[in-house]
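Hey, quick one: can you model this chain's 3D structure?
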Amino acid sequence: MESQKIEQRRLTFTLLGFALVFFLMPFAEVRPLPFHLTAFVLTLVLFLSSRILPASSKYKWFLIILSILALCFDLLLLITFHPLLEFFLIFSSHGIYTVCLGACVWLLVRNLASTEHNPKSLLKSGICGYLLLGFFWMEIYTFISALNPSIFSGVSVHNVSFFYFSFFALSFLTGQGTFAACHPVAYHLVGLEALTGQVFLFFFIARLAILSYSYEARR
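Sure thing. Here's the predicted structure for all 219 residues.
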C-alpha cells in the first residue's frame, strides 16, 4: 500500500511537471535564446520521466547524464561560430534527446502492457507515455530537419513549432498553419506518428477498461 502511494505521488509530480513544460514551451521562441530554452525543457522532461521509469537507478542516471550532455552541446552553440562544429553540436544534441526519449517511451509502454497496475496509476502512466510520445516525435522531426532543412517548410531548425506540429500529428489533427512536411521522408514520418498515436490511445483505453473491470471484480 505504501509503495502504491509513493508511485501515485511520483506520477502526480511528473504530470504537474509536464503541465509546467507545456506552459514553458510557448516562451521557447522568445529571443535571444529560443533553442536553448527548448533544450532546458527537454532535459526537464527526461528528468521527470526518469522518476517513473521501471528501470534500475543506474539506467535512470545514465539517461539523466546523457540529457545533461545534450544540454551542454546546446549551450556550446552560444560560443560556436564555425558552421561544421555548429552542425555537429546540433546533430549530437538532437540525436541524444531522440534516443533518450525513445528509450523512455519504450520502457513506459512495455511496463503498461506487462504489469498489473492500480487503475489510477495506469491512467497517469498512460498520459505520461502519450506526452512522451509527442516529445519523442518532436525530436525526430528536429533531428531530420537538422540534416536537411528543406524537409519541412515554414520553420527553421531552431523553431519550437516542431512541438506543436508533433502533437497535432499525434492526435490526428490538422491546422498547423504554414508549417508543413514537403518531402517523402517527412510524409511517411508524419503518417507513422499519427498511426502510433491512434494505436497507443486504443491500446491504452482497452488496457484501462480491462484493468478497471478486473480491479473492481477483485474488490
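One thing worth noting: Residues 2-218 form one domain.
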